[in-house]
Amino acid sequence: MREYLVAVDVGTGSARAGVFDASGGLIARATHPIVMQRPKENHAEHDSADIWNAVCVVVRRAVADAAIGAASVAAIGFDATCSLVVRGPQGQQVSVSTTGQERFDTIVWLDHRAIAQADFLTVSRHPVLDFAGGSISPEMQMPKLMWLKKNLPESWAKAGYFFDLADFLTWKASGSAKRSNCTLTAKWNFLAHETPGWSQDYLELAGVEDLLARGGLPASTVAPGKSVGKLSPQAAEELGLDTGCEVAAGMIDAYAGALGALGGSLQSDVGSNVALIAGTSSCLVTLTPKLMPGHSLWGPYWQAVLPGHWLVEGGQSATGALLDHVVRMHAAGGDPTSALHQRIVERVQHLRRCEGEGFADHLHVLPDFHGNRSPLADPHARGVVSGLTLDTSFDSLCRLYWRTAVSIALGARHVLDAMQGFGYGVDTLHVTGGHVHNPLLMELYADVTGKRIIVPATADAVLLGTAMTAASAGGVHDGLAAAGAAMYPGGEEKQSSGADRQRYDRDYRRFLAMYRHREELEKI
Fold first, then answer.
1. Which of 58, 176, 353, 463 is the most exposed place for a label (fewest CB within 10 A)?
2. Are the C-beta atoms of 180 and 250 separated by less than 8 Å?
3. Would you list the DSSP string of 212-259?
């Protein structure tokens, strides 16, 4: 009997695999690093062959550690960052790099080389943008494709497939070039609620009128929770599985995390719940049966995760990455290891006890060091720090770290306020990702937003959400809502203390004032 599920998550720096049982229990987990090169500012590139090798390593290791047989695995699911993979007609790697190295065939999600192309699409005000928050981010695929055609025409001419990374993984696993509705709707300006889903005049506006033929892109998509096919013989051998295993349609990693975090509410009123998937960057995701567009909010995307529901996302482009940057750039910092973060957090708590909550009130931070994804939708935005002195001690690092953490929580509140302003009801914030291990951030999310906080009782909500899609595709559960109900592990509730509400309300007013002052400076 096939009762187990394999979930694979490919993030910015590693591939992870987990083996789950039908009730959502994580039996085994493995991680392997992946290569990323940064040849110039705003450029970031992966090697998709290296990624697939890492996937094979972690799946084999996790299955071995789980001590299960290949014949007991019902399905495998994949989620990944929204990175762009380019392959030739015979599947060969095609370079996306200004270095010309063929192995670097993948533009990483965080790559901002295509800002000019994104700006061009945004000012066009094309109707497609009504389902992208009114603007296009350089982190999406269309501007990256425009950049590729203009700047590397030889690579464009060699292309036979353009894949979102999750779709590349399902292609490698099954041999099927079918694409997920999740990836195309959220990252390729495919309008799943319309027929046809591709807007030809939009492609012509972008100068990529040959995109569908050049990239092997289909006219229809596969819904999350459905199968694209079974494992191919080659992939089954490489992964240590067998050809009876179904391959679930791929997922954007944040949306897999939202599915894992919101799984317990999918059969009821999911609309008042927001998933905060917080790691290198942060995504705030909500699902609703009602069409409610909102400027600067990505979407609404029809059935990007759940049947009969629109998905809307707000985001912060650098959160965990920003804390790492602060640690790395400060004279008293260094390599931002987990141990150093823990040491800083402990010292911050000590300073708060000894000097009071105002121990760093002279510092104010705008966290837009990698642009503002929401609610300003401005990839050109820059970070601001006010209140620096000549102090280079470790305590000065701790003060700056604390106020940066406050700014990250204030940014999340800013996004939630925008959601509510467009009519989205937000009662509960389900927090998952790396931030759950940082006690400062978890305290701040509760106190700064004032929302009810739920932390799902799972070691990895992203992998769990991907396992839910596999459970649906493999017939272990009857659809995603049923998989969510059966596999969601419950969660721990965290309430705001309310003691510092006035302090954080004042911080928020200052936060908004800094945005106004930054705009004023830029206009002079």
1. 353
2. yes
3. HHHHT--SS-B-TTSEEEEPPHHHHHHHT--TT-EEEPPEEHHHHHHH
Which tokens hold the place of 421? Answer: 């302003």
* Tens-place pLDDT, residues 202-224: 999 999 999 999 999 999 999 99
Structure tokens, 508: 């928020």
Cβ partners under 8 Å of residue 138, min gap 6:
111, 112, 113, 114, 115, 117, 118, 144, 379
SS3 label, residue 321: helix
| CA separation for the pair 47, 45 (Å, rounded) | 7
Helix, coil or strand: residue 445: helix
Task: Please tell me the chain's helix, strand, coil percentages from 3-state DSSP, rounded to the nearest 5.
Answer: 40, 20, 40
Amino acid 378 reads D
DSSP state of 500: T
C-alpha to C-alpha distance for 331 and 152, rounded to whole angstroms: 40
The gap from C-alpha 74 to its chain's centroid, in whole angstroms, comes to 26
* Token reading at 254: 């944040």
Beta strand extents in 26-179 (DSSP E only): 26-33, 36-37, 45-46, 73-80, 84-87, 106-107, 161-164
Pair of tokens at residue 104: 């670097």
Ranges assigned E (strand) in 62-193: 73-80, 84-87, 106-107, 161-164
Provide the Cα torsion 51, 56, 62, 65; round to 10°. Answer: -140
Q: For residue 17, give the amino acid letter.
A: A
420-477 pLDDT, tens digit per residue, is 999 998 889 999 999 999 999 999 999 999 999 999 999 799 999 999 999 999 999 9
H or E stretch covering 18: strand 14-20
Query: 296: burial class by Cβ within 10 Å (0-12, 13-18, 19+)?
Result: buried
- Measure the CA–CA gap between 444 and 319, rounded to whole angstroms: 13
| Nearest partner of 264 among 426, 482, 415, judged by Cα | 482
